[in-house]
Design a protein that fits this description.
disordered N terminus; 0% helix; Porin; mainly beta
């Protein structure tokens, strides 16, 4: 019989945890104002279909610093459909707040190497100022070959004051058993309801 810690894994520092919703890079509510991001956490495989996680993040940029503690769970409803929920506690000078995030994602296997995802999620402020609350529709694709992987993502967020479009393209290539090259490009376009548009 194995140790109870056999079901734990850890997330690294200065790297994307690539978790769904609030914990993931695709739906990072912080946006472009926080270019530096360090995260450390634990994951626990509760059952074959359910995973729990806790992450603490340090974010900084443009003379602003923020810490947030995140708790989340993902459950596999079927082979290709999963639901997730996250709760975050943010500590910042200008707007400390608690945030809840719920969503659903459907994976579509196109070929043995190519797959796509579509999803829907909602982020709501439980405590604090809720200027950044939104509902998002997400879509992505992933192509996995023997030594490299290409992924793309498009997301549209409908907020109270703005509609935001997010685009992301990334690729990685395995050099050897120890090293992997990774590159990522992100673009965003914001349609402000009261102000001028932003890129």
């Amino acid at each position: 019989m194995g140790s109870p810690f056999d079901t734990f894994t850890s997330t690294g520092s200065n790297a994307s945890t690539e978790k769904p919703g609030y914990l993931g890079t695709g739906t990072d509510i912080i946006g472009d104002g926080y270019p530096d991001r360090t995260a450390a956490g634990l994951e626990y495989q509760l059952t074959d279909r359910t995973q729990l996680r806790a992450v603490h993040e340090w974010l900084s940029g443009e003379d602003i610093k923020l810490h947030r503690t995140l708790f989340g769970a993902t459950s596999q409803l079927s082979k290709n459909i999963s639901v997730f929920g996250n709760y975050g506690i943010e500590d910042s000078v200008d707007n400390p707040r608690d945030i809840a995030n719920l969503g659903i994602k459907n994976k579509i296997d196109i070929t043995d190497k190519l797959s796509a995802d579509v999803g829907l999620e909602r982020l709501e402020t439980v405590k604090g100022r809720g200027d950044d609350d939104f509902t998002a529709i997400t879509s992505s694709f992933s192509y996995l070959a023997d030594l490299y992987k290409i992924t793309g993502r498009y997301e549209i967020r409908f907020g109270k004051k703005e509609t935001k479009h997010l685009f992301e393209l990334s690729t990685s290539k395995k050099i050897n058993t120890d090293y992997t090259l990774f590159a990522r490009e992100r673009l965003s376009y914001t349609d402000n309801k009261d102000l001028s548009d932003e890129y």
